[in-house]
Amino acid sequence: MLRRTGVLIGFALVLLLVNPAHAQGPVPQHSDPHWQVSYWNNMALSGVPVIQETVAHLNWDWGYGSPHASVSVDRFSARWKRYIDLPAGTYRFTATSDDGIRVYVDDRLIIDQWNDHPARTYTSDVSLQAGHHLIVVEYYENKGHAVAKVSWAPVSVGPDKWRGEYFDNRWLSGSPALVRGGPHIDFDWRHGSPAAGIPGDGFSVRWRRTVHLENGWYRFTSISDDGVRIYVDSRLIIDQWHDHATQIHTGNVSLEAGDHLIVVEYYENRGLAVARFSWAPSIGPNRWQSEYFDNRWLSGSPALVRADASIDFNWGYGSPGTGIPSDGFSVRWTRTVHFESGLYRFTATTDDGVRLWVNGHALIDAWNDQSFKPHLGAIHVAGDVPIVMEYYENGGVAAARLTWARVDADPPPPSPNVVIVDDADVGFVQGGSTTAWRTASEGYNGGLTWTRNNDRLRPNYNWARWYPDLKPGRHEVFVYIPKHYSTTSSARYWVAHRDGFTLCRVSQAANGGRWVSLGTYRFRGTGNDYVSLTDVTYEPYLSRLLAFDAVKWMPR
Question: Which pLDDT value is given to residue 517?
């Protein structure tokens, strides 16, 4: 037995001497000056390596050749390992390869380009704590040129840039997975990710920057989907830390001349990911803060900032002001207005595109070329309410107008001439995916129909129409919004009347338990009169609930 044990021990020693271990070994006291590399004569890093060696760098361009006499010219793979000792900070890792390459830092995959491609360079910024870090690089060559290069360097964020800390969770917790700088917070990642190592959903970001401002009032504006918080000198001025569709929020603050620390915190839960932030000197009360841009996309710094007493412009074929072209410009108007509690109908009439936010809710969205036409939206508001209207002009006539008026939140008791069509009545017609429709025992007359939203027009989308039995004449149209199953901010009602079709965008989330007026129209008194609603809200897919309840036509 002892003799057999001795033979086994001896055999193991021979293996250790002939075939070095694949592991990196003990962590060195300082940065390891060498890479430990293994090569395979296949593209899958599989089996026993044909050769293992120590190399001083990872900066290879083998052309049409091979890294070693024992390694094939084509269809080979390699794995390099090395410990490096770094001070705390953010580092940019750069990889150039032909073909596939993967880079890991402490077992975290930071560059993943495991595919055939000509020589290309990829980067990833990683925040690291002080100490040793294991770098692993995997590579394969299919055919043609063979290139593999990896390097890293500290990333510095200049004083005139935002320092962005990106976290792979929604709570800004732990160490950031990525730190990088940038001149603006102006991102629309759609359904994608901000960078490698950050998930497409369930991430958060904290941006910091110190800016010098002159004495005066400033308006800070955020556009986000989902949550956002804005701090100025540790004072919270915008607090919308909850899931929501794309919303715009503003905060006004008086600042003394000097340096001020601005912190923007943001999280994305699921669906679309949007984060935009800006500020501008604020105009006094009862006037619109007007920012005019010399492009159609509200991008960059405004070419003109001024105070407008109202939004009631018809520029014809001319320009709004000095430095603004006659065609291809855009405007953002911002103002806080005090409202008595009640239901208000907003009307934006423009040529061309318009978007309107009231109290953060996207009330009107007609961001397309169009002739001079009105768009309506109704919302219940109270107190000081921020209003933001965005407009662009493409070509031809330029005009923009905004008005609002209070409407009865609760119409007078029904008269014999009032017509109500409930979702349980014969005048209610629905279509689309039968499995997507749901009902609930609440709402008008104790019942309602509901479904989840679509982010765009898809095959078999859900729709419904309410057909009334009307006498010809003028009627005001109301829709009933129940308290529950109504979380969308963008229900798009179409009213078919004698003079055509009118789109009314209603925030169901802001009007639960109310009748909402869609306006007064002339009706034909035929089967061509109706109100329609679809499940298309352009909010994140299946993230909102739409209620299909009752519609009322009241003679006027």
Answer: 87
pLDDT higher than threshold 70 for residue 409: no
Which pLDDT score, from 0 to 100, does residue 359 have? 83
CA distance 457 to 6: 76
User: How far is 198 from 268, CA to CA, in rounded Å?
Assistant: 11
For the stretch 451-505, pLDDT in tens is: 999 988 888 899 999 999 999 999 989 999 998 899 898 899 999 999 888 888 8
Q: Are 89 and 177 in contact (CB under 8 A)?
A: no
Query: In terms of CATH architecture, what is 288-407?
Result: Sandwich (2.60)
Structure tokens that stand for 351 in this block: 């040529």
Average pLDDT, the chain: 86
C-alpha distances in Å from residue 363, one per residue of 197, 342, 382, 415, 493: 36, 16, 16, 31, 12
Domain segments of the chain as ranges: 24-154, 162-281, 288-407, 419-555
CATH class of 162-281: mainly beta
Say whether 11 sits in a helix, a strand or coil. helix
> The domain 419-555: what is its CATH number?
2.60.120.260
Angle at 117 between CA 116 and CA 119, to 5 degrees: 135
Task: Please give the backbone phi and psi of residue 37, each rounded to the nearest 5 degrees, phi first.
Answer: -125, 140
pLDDT at 1: 42
Q: What is the pLDDT of residue 179?
A: 83
> In angstroms, what CA-CA distances link 465 with 470, 476, 483?
15, 17, 21
Task: Give the residue-averaged pLDDT of 110-127.
Answer: 88
Contact 449, 437 (CB under 8 A): yes
CATH topology of 24-154 equal to that of 162-281? Answer: yes
- CATH architecture entry for 24-154: Sandwich (2.60)
Cα(351)–Cα(435) distance, integer angstroms: 40
Q: Which residue has the higher pLDDT, 317 or 253?
A: 317
- CA–CA gap between residue 394 and residue 296 (Å, rounded): 7
Chain-centroid distance, C-alpha 205? 12
